[in-house]
Amino acid sequence: MPGWGRSFSLALKSVVVGFLFALLGIIIIGAGVVLGLMAYYYEHTTTALVVGVLLFVIGFCVAGLGFYAALIKYSVEEALKEIAQKAPAAPVVAPVPAPAVTVVTTPAPTAAVQACPRCGGALTFVPQANRWYCTNCQQYV
């Protein structure tokens, strides 16, 4: 619901714009009437009379459409402002990265002692490194 200050401002804008259109319409109507009367009293030409009547009708249309357009324009503008104020802001959601999945496969140490392929010494399985280690070569196999 707009406050009275905004409503007054809206009504004032509508009246001013409508008044300007009405003034323009009255000027066009006046031109049509003058042209029509001049044609009737002085020249008696139908063309001037038709143009005068057309200007008269166009003047009424401009005046009426001016008020209508002013009211519609500002009413729609006000409605859009109200809708924008009432609409909840869309929450900003950051994409959550998928958790990293680490598959650890540990070879089951066998009961038999593994032999190092380089030196033939005994290998020891290190679970933290998930590898076999040769104590003679001091290297992972």
Polypeptide structure, described:
There is one protein chain. α1 runs antiparallel to α2. This protein is mostly helical and 141 residues long. Helices cover 57% and strands 7% of the residues. A hairpin with a 4-residue loop joins β2 (131-134) and β3. The protein has two helices and three strands; from the N terminus they run ααβββ. It has a three-stranded antiparallel beta sheet with strand order 1-2-3, with no helix packed on it. It folds into two domains: 4-86; 107-141, no CATH class.
Summarize the structure in short:
This protein is mainly α. The protein has two helices and three strands, in the order ααβββ.
Supply the key terms.
141 residues, mainly alpha, 2 domains, 2 helices
Topology, element by element:
Layout lengths: L3 H40 L2 H41 L36 E4 L4 E4 L4 E2 L1
Antiparallel strand pairs: 1-2, 2-3
